[in-house]
């Protein structure tokens, strides 16, 4: 990011995307390795999940396949998938956020230094994720309740209740889900770059989002839309297209879609990193680069406690 910190607040959504996409050019080898070793497995797992669960579900749906062992296989696979997804999601976030911040502070960047920093970053991200999970559980319970209400409205043919349920579900999914996603991603960056994590990082994220909620909404909506389209095409052609498409076509399309999702996920991680600096600039919360430099060094065993803080607003402590 070559722009002065005070000018970041004036970036439009398109400018933010352009700024994010240009970052890997400053350390192409590092981002190439991050993409290959962390982002690619994450993207492949997201798409391959349906490819592996579809045959298991087909076996369960057959009279001979409804045995408990089939359900056990499915549950074990789902559990392993979620663990893998969580691990690589946090690892990818840690690597990209740390690398972008290192470039921002002119700290030497290499893939080995990024890997060395991940253990310290991972714990902070995981605790933050646990707090986000609590919110997501509450959100899902409310969402499920209105889905039940929707079914009741359809069964009773209650037009007023049906309309109310549809509106609430639409708002919950489109607005609330997008906001919570933005809150989570921004809190992840806060947990890496500031001396707070967990619930404190989420509170900080909430404060930073004020005034930039609309930009966050469009960024999250755009990301989810791209992922939705990619997953939809993958499901239609690769997973369920056996009767309409040959093996070669399915392999080519599947490989292409994995590549596209890798790019989308990498850009998404870069965007969330840059968006943090945009929010800080918008709230006139400058970042002391020397303090941030030392904070990043703490993940590498280089940290020496300083009185200064990453946040300029805390320098008077």
UniProtKB/TrEMBL annotation:
Source taxon at top rank = Eukaryota
UniProt KW keywords: Membrane, Transmembrane, Transmembrane helix
Q: Which chain regions cross the lipid bilayer?
A: 31-53, 74-105, 125-152, 159-176, 182-203, 215-239, 251-279
What is the protein's name according to its record?
Answer: Polyadenylate-binding protein 1-B-binding protein
Species assigned in the record: Actinidia rufa
Q: What is the lineage of its organism?
A: Eukaryota, Viridiplantae, Streptophyta, Embryophyta, Tracheophyta
